[in-house]
Amino acid sequence: MSTDDMPRTLVVIAHPDPGSLTHHVSQRLGAALRPGAVEVADLHREGFDPRFTPADRRAYHEGGGHPPDVLREQRRLDRATDLVLVFPVYWWSVPALLKGWIDRVFVSGWAFEYSAPAGVQPKLQRLTTHLLPVAGADAGAYERHGYGTALRTQLTHGLVDYVGSRRGVTAFVHDSEQPSTEATEATVDRAVRTVAAAVRVPASRP
């Protein structure tokens, strides 16, 4: 992990279209975070394979020997103080590409360890994780149906807490398909400013 005092942010994008709102949001976020150190992982452009392979399975059982693409992503995370996941919401969850990245990268022995006597031992306490979901529905629909709670449960509790990462902010871009570009841009601006401020002012970071 980076040892300097300045935050180093890894922005992970999971969308196949470089002209998408998801990419626009990530570009706005990168600009808002600079001149701080920012690294972007565009999973689709880089050709990350989300499939959990026989090699991943062997590494899980043998406790090492992870595939090179997994090791590369872990090194990126080791350099970061902050992780921001920028993704469109598909069926109230993350895209398969991002889910596969999580499945393959956040593995036992690196993200956490487990033993019968001690139970789960998280290993990513050095990292703060922020979520920037791009959602088609409005905030009211998410509140009424519990979609936001479900997404936070999957990611904040199921991933962030499990590996010991500090909880950052969750900033939704709701109503992403509304006809007014001005309204969409205002929503994007609020979400980007929320995440950028949290990275710059890490109140919980030792």
Automatic annotation (TrEMBL):
Entries under Gene3D superfamilies matching the protein: 3.40.50.360
What InterPro entries does this protein map onto? Flavodoxin_fold, Flavoprotein-like_sf, NAD(P)H_dehydrogenase_qn
User: Is Ion transport a UniProt keyword of this protein?
Assistant: no
| Keyword check for Oxidoreductase | yes
What keywords does the record list, in alphabetical order? Oxidoreductase
Q: Which residues form a coiled coil?
A: none
Indicate the segments forming the Flavodoxin-like fold domain, all copies.
Answer: 8-190
Q: Which Pfam families did the record assign?
A: Flavodoxin_2 (PF02525)
Family from the record: Belongs to the NAD(P)H dehydrogenase (quinone) family.
Q: What is this protein called?
A: Flavodoxin family protein
